[in-house]
Amino acid sequence: MEKLIGLKKIKTAVFISGTGSNLKNIIKFSKLKKSPISILLIVSNTNKAKGLSYAYQFKIEKKIFNFKDFDKAEKNIITLLQKKKIKLICLAGFMKILSKKFIKIFGGKIINIHPSLLPKYKGLNTHSRAIKNKDKFAGCTVHHVTGNLDSGKIILQRKIKIAAADNTISLKKKVLKQEHKLYPAAIMKIFN
Predict the structure, then answer these.
(1) Domain check: are 89 and 126 in the same one?
(2) What is the pLDDT of residues 130-169, one digit of tens each?
(3) Is 114 a catalytic residue?
(4) Nearest CA among 119, 118, 120 for reference residue 129
(5) How many structural domains compose the chain?
(6) What is the CATH number of the domain that holds 90?
């Protein structure tokens, strides 16, 4: 029993809004012996998020919060996270910007993946912006979340070459493949 104390995994929540491909990837990573995290909760701002199906598949609790009343939604999420003793929040395609108050409560314990080589292309439409600007490289970044959009300290980045034939769809697919490798690597980096 005493040996297990050192092996306690970090209680983690993943926030999603979409297909959940990064969520699925993080769940699979969390099941590995070397992984420092255990996912206890999936949070979404919409019941239309396809990624919620992974909650059933992997038997993880899911909660959907209606952000029409933003303050109330955040308050309820904070209460739930504290009740579950969540120590890490992974944003994985979560399409709501968390308040500065929320970020302060979980200061340094929220990370995000962004589909660009930050500080380039904060916000949305990163792939079309990279192509429009004739960039030679694209990529993705895992960073700490702060009160300023996509501006927190960078944990890890992965760079890929933009091919002449790439369009926003092909580039998105290429970057997403890298995201799936980057997120677990960034989590390992934080806890090692």
Answers:
(1) no
(2) 999 999 999 999 999 999 999 999 999 999 999 999 999 9
(3) yes
(4) 120
(5) 2
(6) 3.40.50.170
Query: Can you read off the two tokens belonging to residue 111?
Result: 């990370």
As given in the structure block, the two tokens for residue 14 are 């993943």
* 3-class SS of residue 26: helix
Q: How many residues does the chain have?
A: 192
pLDDT category at 3 given cuts 50, 70, 90 is very low
Same domain, 18 and 56: yes
Pick from 81, 107, 133: which residue ends a domain? 107
User: Of these residues, 114, 127, 143, 144, which one is catalytic?
Assistant: 114
CA–CA separation, 53 vs 70, rounded Å? Answer: 25
Distance in angstroms (rounded) separating the CA atoms of residues 124 and 131: 14
Quick one: pLDDT at residue 1?
Answer: 27
Structural domain of 26 = 9-107
Q: What predicted TM-score, i.e. pTM, was given to this entire model?
A: 0.94
